[in-house]
Write a structure and sequence with these properties.
single chain; alpha/beta; Double Stranded RNA Binding Domain; eight-stranded parallel beta barrel; three-stranded antiparallel sheet; binds acetyl coenzyme *A; binds 3-methyl-2-oxobutanoic acid; leucine biosynthesis; 2-isopropylmalate synthase; amino-acid biosynthesis; 2-isopropylmalate synthase activity
């Protein structure tokens, strides 16, 4: 049958109450009501499969945990399960002393008796009796007159009074009485009051405070809007006598979807107590949702006296016991209620968090309240034990703000606005292409891939391995600013380029432009910086710097450049990494010039290229002066061999052979004038100074000679020992070392430049470099010294009686 064009022929409007001087609309709620959970009764009776005793027990314990103090646990006359559950709670002592068990009974003597039997021995119990009072029920269900309806309620109230008194005398149970004129909202207002007055009189014991009788006024079926319910409640509260002896309880159902509104307006109208179910389970469209009501109060700064700090575990228990889901859009509890997919919501939330963080810090410093004031989020998800992770989720409706928020949440990176726009485009493309929600992991992975950020799996073609930034005064001092001398920065570093280590050198006004200069010179990558920003990441000792860079080809009015990000404990390091991140994006898969050694007069590979070859072949990171020294050696060797050739390609093998020969690196001991045979290095004194003594043997010009000397450290000790064997003076001009490899494979490489003054009178000095490697760092240093000595034209002291 289709819907009617004139529904007034079938449906009557709700009977409105004429209450022109109603007060409730201008009142405000300032405190929480008494809560009664009827999950285990009204909720349970609405389930296809009512709960088992185990489920009821679990649910009961959860209600107690949340702080509910009055719990309607059963309709004991309905089934053995209900009756036995109540007995079990009492006999197993599962009811905390401050919790009241409530049980429901119709106005039928046999069922009342069983109901009271069920709670005998409980510390506190509320007997709740109901009979429907509306004309429809009087006429159709009970076929009763008004008088008979009143008589039914009065008679059974008296029975309850008598039986509860007997039970109290026997078991000590303290009872309260609750009466419900069922179908209250459809009952004539004055008749509902008449029945309740008669019940109060029949009960005869209503008093103030703890002795109040509870009149529960149900919207058994929600037939009108919330103002209808509120008017009915205000009318009842104003007209019931001895109001101070009455708790007015509200029991809204949700047939029109306005159960929450009815309950809230009913509270304004005078209600003291609310009966409902968690997440709104209950007959038909459900009972009013207590979680929703409580959190509405909470969001107004009113303590609800219910605790949902771990709302997820409450949801789990309730859904498991009811075998019904909580809708994803359910207020406060649904999985999507703290989630924004749309761009403008995300943008506002992101900005809200940023501003609020600052405002809270300021308010905290002033000792003031830190108010929650957040676009689109009425309460803080964290208060319910929900993380912020789900607050922003990304699909094709999302904007840059939301994506930037997730990057901030998960990587701690506060992207500059233009970079947000750039990355948004990346994510949008994926979301559009794949037509699906982008999960946090998708976004984080896309970010890492795009900016080559976050470890070896995401590394780009260019990877910073090591660097040194040095300053030197500018050759052209800034004449405008004569008070300050400009400083130029030099970048000396090692960069892995397509898997090959390259030594890169460059100069600029700052570290980043020096790096870009190096990339231009060595790799033919011509880019400059258009935008740069940085911030700290973390606090205290753990603090690191995050840098963001946009690079563009020079001189081009290109709209969008390439962005990069870098994080490092060192601010220069983070900037350099950011530049390489952007450069990686800019070069894409364009081929880069290979490392080729062209040495000669016209076109020459640089000193850095030569150092790169040594680094790749031998893992030696030559100190800068040694790089220069070896480069000269290489140039000389090309010239020496073939003066006609102006530019010559030198093979890597030739170059490495030349290096080994020049510095005696890893050559057989018999090919050196001096080599180490054995040694022992000992600390002298009490260990508070670094003085050492070396004892050992060397082979000097083919003869084994004792090595014995003392010094402030291992090197000066060995030099002292050498001075006993060789005429003249050795001194260390430069020394450095570094490790090669990792873990148990690690070895030490040492570099020494020695000067030698053979003849003190002429003061003629010569110098030589020695390079060595050993698993022991002291041995590697000593060997480097002996390598350097071997290269010098020294004169051994003559042997006297077989010793020096
Ligand atoms: C709005 C509410 O939620 S009210 C609570 C509703 N909850 C339940 O009904 C769940 C538990 N109920 C039950 O298990 C059963 O209905 C029982 C055990 C209470 C009673 O079962 P039965 O004796 O078989 O009766 P039945 O279920 O058919 O109830 C209808 C009878 O009770 C009467 N009745 C209904 N409500 C009441 C009441 N509040 N007080 C007195 N009698 C009542 C009806 O007039 C009818 O009487 P009739 O048989 O003389 O015509
Ligand atoms: C028993 C009463 C209070 C009831 O559940 C209702 O009217 O909805």
């Amino acid at each position: 049958m289709p819907m009617l064009s004139d529904p007034s022929k079938k449906y009557k409007p709700y009977p409105a109450l004429d209450l022109p001087d109603r007060q409730w609309p201008s009142r405000r709620t300032t405190k929480a009501p008494i809560w009664l959970s009827t999950d285990l009764r009204d909720g349970n009776q609405a389930l296809a499969n009512p709960m088992t005793i185990e489920q009821k027990t679990l649910f009961f314990q959860q209600l107690v945990k949340c702080g509910v103090k009055e719990i309607e646990v059963a309709y004991p006359a309905a089934s053995d399960t209900d009756f036995n559950f109540v007995r079990m709670l009492i006999e197993k002592n599962l009811v905390p002393d401050d919790v009241w068990l409530q049980v429901l009974t119709p106005a039928r003597e046999d069922l009342i008796k069983r109901t009271i039997d069920s709670v005998a021995g409980a510390k506190h119990a509320i007997i709740h009796m109901y009979n429907a009072t509306s004309p429809l029920f009087r006429n159709v269900v009970f076929r009763n007159s008004k008088e008979e309806t009143v008589a039914l309620a009065v008679k059974h109230t008296k029975i309850i009074r008598q039986l509860t008194e007997e039970c109290s005398a026997q078991t000590g149970t303290v009872f309260k009485y609750e009466y419900s004129p069922e179908t209250f909202t459809q009952t004539e207002p004055d008749f509902a009051i008449e029945v309740c007055e008669a019940v109060k009189a029949a009960w005869g014991k209503a008093g103030p405070g703890e002795d109040r009788i509870i009149f529960n006024l149900p919207a058994t079926v929600e037939i009108g809007p919330c103002n209808h319910y509120a008017d009915r409640i205000e009318h009842f509260c104003r007209n019931i006598t001895e109001r101070e002896k009455v708790i007015v309880s509200l029991h809204p159902h949700n047939d029109r979807g306005t159960g929450i509104a009815a309950a809230e307006c009913g509270l304004l109208a005078g209600g003291d107590r609310i009966e409902g179910c968690f997440f709104g389970n209950g007959e038909r469209t459900g009972n009013v949702d207590l979680v929703n009501l409580a959190l509405n109060l909470y969001s107004q700064g009113i303590p609800p006296n219910l605790d949902f700090s771990d709302i997820q575990s409450v949801i789990e228990v309730v859904t498991q016991c009811n075998d019904l889901p909580v809708h994803p859009r359910h207020p406060y509890a649904g999985e999507l209620v703290f989630t924004a997919f749309s761009g403008s919501h995300q943008d506002a939330i992101k900005k809200g968090f940023e501003v609020q963080r600052k405002q809270h810090a300021e308010a905290k410093a002033r000792g003031e309240n830190q108010y929650w004031d957040m676009p689109y989020l009425p309460i803080d998800p964290a208060d319910l034990g929900c993380s912020y992770e789900a607050v922003i989720r990304v699909n094709s409706q999302s904007g840059k703000g939301g994506i930037a928020y997730l990057v901030k949440q998960h990587l701690g990176l506060d992207l500059p606005r233009k970079m947000q726009i750039a990355f948004y485009q990346v994510v949008q493309d994926i979301a559009d292409r794949e037509a699906r929600e982008m999960m946090v992991d998708d976004i984080v992975t896309a970010f890492r891939k795009t900016y080559h950020f976050g470890g070896p799996s995401y590394q780009g073609r260019l990877v910073l391995k090591s660097f040194e930034i040095s300053s030197e005064p500018s050759v052209e001092p800034d004449t405008e600013r004569s008070d300050s001398q400009d400083e130029r920065r030099r970048f000396d570093g090692t960069i892995l380029v397509d898997g090959v280590l390259r030594v890169i050198k460059g100069e600029g006004n700052g570290p980043l432009s020096a790096l870009l200069d190096g990339l231009r010179t060595h790799l033919d990558i011509d880019l400059s910086i258009r935008e740069y920003s940085e911030h700290t990441l973390g606090e205290g000792k753990e603090a690191r710097a995050a840098s963001y860079v946009e690079v563009v080809p020079p001189g081009e009015g290109r709209k969008a450049g390439w962005w990069g990000v870098g994080v490092d404990s060192d601010i220069a390091g983070s900037g350099l990494r950011a530049v390489l991140s952007a450069v990686n994006a800019a070069i894409g898969d364009r081929p880069l010039p290979e490392l080729k050694l062209l040495v000669g007069f016209d076109k020459r590979s640089s000193l850095a290229d030569v150092a790169s070859v040594v680094l790749n072949a031998l893992h030696l990171e030559l100190p800068k002066r040694l790089q220069a020294s070896f480069f000269e050696v290489v140039q000389r060797s090309v010239g020496d061999k073939d003066d006609d050739v102006r530019v010559k390609e030198v093979s890597y093998d030739t170059l490495i052979k030349l290096f080994r020969e020049t510095y005696g690196y890893e050559v057989a001991p018999e090919q050196s004038r001096v080599s180490l045979k054995s040694f022992k290095m000992e600390y002298l004194g009490d260990g508070s100074d670094s003085r050492r003594e070396i004892n050992g043997e060397i082979v000097l010009d083919g003869k084994v000679r004792p090595l014995k000397g003392q010094g402030n450290g291992p090197l000066s000790a060995v030099l002292a020992a050498l001075h006993e064997l060789i005429e003249g003076t050795f001194a260390v001009r430069e020394y450095s070392e570094h490790s090669i490899g990792e873990g148990s494979e690690v070895t030490a490489a040492s570099y020494v430049e020695l000067t030698y003054t053979r003849d003190e009178e002429s003061q003629k000095k010569s110098a030589a470099w020695g390079v060595a490697r050993d698993t022991d760092i002291t041995a590697s240093g000593l060997k480097a010294v002996l390598c350097a000595v071997s290269k010098l034209d020294f004169k051994p002291r003559s042997l006297v009686n077989g010793s020096a």
